[in-house]
Amino acid sequence: MEKLEMEAPDSSLVDKAKKPISKRLNKYERVFQPCLAEVLGTMFFVLIGCVSVIENTPAAGRLQPALVHGLAVAVLVAVMDRISGSHFNPPFTVAVCLCGGLELAMVAPYLVSQLVGGVLGAGMAKLMTSPERFSNASGAAFDLLRSESQLYRALFGEAAMTCLVTLVVLMVAVNSRTKTPFGPFLVGSTVMFNILAGADISGACMNPARAFGPALIANHWTYHWVYWVGPITGGAVAAALVRLVLGDQKLRIVLKS
Q1: How much is the pLDDT for 113?
Q2: Whole-number pLDDT of residue 23
Q3: DSSP of 135-169, one letter per residue?
Q4: Is 255 a member of any domain?
Q5: CA 120 to the chain's CA centroid
Q6: Which is more confidently placed, 95 or 25?
Q7: Are the CB atoms for 84 and 4 separated by under 8 Å?
Q8: Is residue 17 part of a domain?
Q9: CA-CA 20 to 30 A from 67: which of 3, 9, 25, 28?
C-alpha cells in the first residue's frame, strides 16, 4: 500500500499501472482533498440512492434501487478513486485500514466526512422530492424492521452482505495478487445483487453513512443500530478473512512459509 502522505492512496479500485503525475503531494492533497472527496462522493451516492427509493414505484420493485445504488457506486468509485480511494462507507474505511491500505490517522477524518456526506445527500433528497413522497418513503430511511424475529435475520443479513462487498473491495483494491481495473464494476455489481437478494430482509443498506443521513433528516431511528452493528461486523470479518486466509504474503499475518 502506498503511503498517504507521499502518494495517492492505494486503497483505490482502479488499475495502478499508470503512475500519477506527481508522486509527492502537498498537505491539501494528502489530507483535505481526500476528505472532501469522501464528503462529495458519499453525498452524491446517498442523494441518488435516497431519490431512487423515494421515487420508486411498486412496478419497479427492488430493481430500481438496486440498479441505481450499484451504478452510482461504480461511477463514483471510478471518478474519485485516485483522490481518496473511494470508500464512501465506514466499514470499507475500517477494513482498508486493518489491511494496511490507509493510515490510522486518516480513519476518523474519513468517517466524519462520510457521515457529513450522508446527511448532506439525504437533505438534498428531501429538497428534490415532494413532501408526500418523502413522507411515504420515510425519507428513504430503513423502516422494514417491525418485529424481534425479523430483527436478528436483518442483523445477520447486513453483516453477511457487507462482508461480501467489503471482501470484494479488499481483493480488488488492496490485495496485490487480485487487483484489477474492473474494480468499480465489480464493487457496483456486488452492491446491486446484494440489494436484489436482500432488500426485503433488511433493506440491504451495507453502509452506516447511507443509513444515518436519512435517519437524521427524517427523524426515523427505529432499529437504527442494526445498520451500524451489522455492517461494521461484516467489514471486520472481511478484513480478518483477508489478513488470515485470502491475502497475499504481504497482507497475511499467518501461514507465510
Answers
A1: 98
A2: 62
A3: HHTGGG------SHHHHHHHHHHHHHHHHHHHHHH
A4: no
A5: 16
A6: 95
A7: no
A8: no
A9: 9
pLDDT tens for each residue of 104-143 = 999 999 999 999 999 999 999 999 999 999 999 999 999 9
Q: Rounded mean pLDDT of the chain?
A: 90
Whether residue 128 is contained in a domain is answered as yes
Q: What is the CATH number of the domain that holds 59?
A: 1.20.1080.10
Q: What is the model's pLDDT at position 12?
A: 53
Cα separation, 242 vs 257, in Å, equals 17
Residue 257 lies in a domain: no
**At residue 11, does pLDDT exceed 90?**
no
Task: Say how many domains are in the chain.
Answer: 1
pLDDT for 58 equals 82
Measured at the CA of 153, the angle between CA 152 and CA 156, to 5 degrees, comes to 85
Residue 194 structural domain: 27-246
Instruction: Quote the strand ranges of the chain, DSSP E.
Output: none
Orientation angle between helical segments 33-54 and 63-84, nearest 10 degrees:
170
- Pair 254, 241: CB distance under 8 Å: no
Task: Pinpoint the alpha helices (H) of 7-106.
Answer: 27, 33-54, 63-84, 90-98
| Cα–Cα distance measured from residue 9 to residue 12, given in angstroms and rounded to the nearest whole number | 7
Tell me how far apart the alpha carbons of residues 25 and 4 are, in angstroms, rounded to a whole number: 9
Angle at 110 between CA 205 and CA 204, to 5 degrees: 5
Phi then psi dihedrals of residue 79, to 5 deg: -85, -25
Kindly report, residue by residue over 18-66, the tens digit of the pLDDT. 444 346 888 899 899 999 999 999 999 999 999 999 999 887 788 999 9
